[in-house]
Write a structure and sequence with these properties.
- The chain is mainly alpha-helical.
- Helix content is 50%, strand content 9%.
- It is built from six helices and five strands.
- The strands form two sheets. The chain has a three-stranded mixed β-sheet, with no helix packed on it. The chain has a two-stranded antiparallel sheet with strand order 1-2.
- The N and C termini lie far apart (56 Å).
Length: 140
């Protein structure tokens, strides 16, 4: 029999060392600060939330900068996405691939994917951000 010690962060992500867990929770805190610029998200079916467009844009730039700091080998891509020089799907692909190590980054990016940058409306899923005319629900 062996004894195994696992460290679990507040969001349920598991780590083998206390240091890794602490660093991840520090990252989660930074993400929370960035996302505090946005209003709360509504996950109810057929309900969207109008966010402030400039707050969304500012938060996205800060989030991309945080991603660049966290994943320095991809910093150029995140920087280009933050400036609008590269399609955001490039950042999305990287963050999706890193989900196991950094779920907070992938989940936060998913939230940005649910926001129509033209209107600031945050939908329940990314499809409606790309096809807002098909949304038949209520916008708060």
């Amino acid at each position: 029999m062996k004894k195994v010690i696992v460290y679990v962060s507040d969001d349920g992500t598991r780590f083998n060392t206390e240091k890794e867990c602490s660093l991840y929770e520090e990252l989660c805190g930074k993400v929370k600060v960035v996302m505090s610029e946005l209003g709360p998200r509504n996950n109810d079916y057929n309900i969207a939330v109008r966010q402030d467009k400039s707050a969304v844009a500012n938060a996205y730039v800060k989030f991309m900068n945080l991603c660049a700091d966290t994943l320095p080998s991809y910093s150029g891509i995140f920087d280009q996405c933050s400036r609008g020089e590269r399609h955001p799907s490039h950042a999305s692909r990287i963050l999706s691939d890193c989900y196991i190590e950094y779920p907070i980054l992938a989940e936060t990016n998913h939230r940005f994917n649910c926001i129509d940058t033209e209107t600031g409306i945050e939908y329940e899923q990314p499809y409606f951000a790309a096809h807002p005319h098909e949304f038949k629900g209520k916008i708060l």
